[in-house]
Structures are given as C-alpha cells and as structure tokens.
Amino acid sequence: MYTEQELRVLNDCGKEQTKIQTYLDSIPFDGRVYDTGEYEARSFRKTVKDGQGLCLCAALTAAHILEYNGQEPLLLDIWSRPLEHTVAIYQNGKVGSLGKSRQDGAGGQPSTFDSVEEVAQYYANFFRGIGWEVEAFGVIDLSKIDDIDWRFELRNLDELGICQRINKFPHYKI
Questions:
Q1: Which of 79, 91, 62 is nearest to 127 (CA)?
Q2: CB 75 within 8 A of CB 66
Q3: Structural contact between residues 120 and 84, judged by C-beta atoms closer than 8 angstroms
Q4: CATH for 4-173, among 3.10.620, 3.30.160, 3.90.79, 1.10.287?
Q5: From residue 167, how far is each of 35, 52, 71, 85, 125 by CA, in Å?
Q6: Model pTM?
Q7: CA distance 15 to 30
Q8: Which one-letter DSSP state was computed for residue 138?
Q9: How many helices (H) and strands (E) does the chain have?
Q10: Where does the pLDDT of residue 136 fall: very low under 50, low under 70, confident under 90, or very high at 90 and above?
C-alpha cells in the first residue's frame, strides 16, 4: 500500500510533532498559485511524491502522519481574504498545529495552546496583523471525508472537490 518513500517519511517523522514540522518545512512551497493562478491540492501521497505543496497539501500530509501514528486526522481551516489557510492540529496535553505558509509565523505552532479556539485566534491575530480579513474557523475531521481519498489520490484534490467538502464543515465567527 505505501511506497518506500512514503514509509521513510512516516517512519522518520514518527509521532514527534517537531519531526513532522521539520519534514513539512523541507518541502518547497508551490508558488504556482501566486505566479499563474494554478492551484493543485495534493494528497499525502502526491505531496511526498512531488516534494512540494501549499498549506492544504502540508496540512493533509501532517494529518495523515498523525493518523498513521494513532491520532485523529484533524484540520483547522481559517476563512480569510485574500486566501484561506489550513493547518493540521494535534493534542498532547496542549494543542498545536503543523503546517506550511509563505508568511513567516503562519506555519505550524508548538503545542502551547489550551484549546483549538486559541490556535484559531492565534492565526486570526496573525493574519489581521498583515492586513488580511479573517471571518471564521472550522475544525475538519478528515475521517468524515470518505468520498475523496485525501491520503492517496494522485489527481488534483481541488478538482475532486476537497475544498468544497472542507467548507461544508461548520465554521465559527472569529
């Protein structure tokens, strides 16, 4: 089921959030969305294979690594303008996030928060600080998305409707 490269990533990262974040940091940010408007949402498999991605790709990758190691595959989705932002979230007594961004400070955050709402507020404050409008946040349980293979699909997940599925989960004003 897994390729050698995928198993290497899963085993190298293990359960340690710092290793997962280090892996995400090593993946180049796919800037095509800014250069040409071309958006490709990649699954865990496609992100590992291509070795690049956007925030959603990194969040899906981190969520699968966490799931592989026995945690729930959860995302935090921030509705903001000009762009949405998505990170994986985890709990180990406190709450933290794992992710990627072109903006320093908007990637993963260590588990220093008491709740998911506090993590969402951190990102809202960050994005408002750089002039973005922030509307709402949602917690996405990826185990509830069973009609799109966010783990292993090689096609563009955006074309399969992953963003629409994420947006159907409840989002709360922030």
A1: 79
A2: no
A3: no
A4: 3.10.620
A5: 25, 24, 22, 12, 21
A6: 0.96
A7: 26
A8: E
A9: 7, 6
A10: very high
What region does 164 belong to: left with phi over 0, alpha with psi -120 to 50, or beta? Answer: alpha
Distance CA 37, CA 65 (A): 29
- Quick: pLDDT tens for 56-91: 999 999 999 999 999 999 999 999 887 789 999 999
CB 53 within 8 A of CB 100: yes
Chain centroid to Cα 135, Å, comes to: 18
Token reading at 151: 């783990």
* Dist. CA 26–CA 8, nearest whole Å: 14
Backbone angles phi, psi at 75, to 5 degrees: -115, 155
Domain boundaries, the chain: 4-173
User: Six-digit token pair at 37?
Assistant: 């408007």
- Which residues make beta-bridge pairs with 86? 77
Crossing angle, helix 55-68 and helix 4-13, to 10 degrees? 80
Distances 140 to 31, 38, 55 between C-alpha atoms, Å: 25, 24, 15
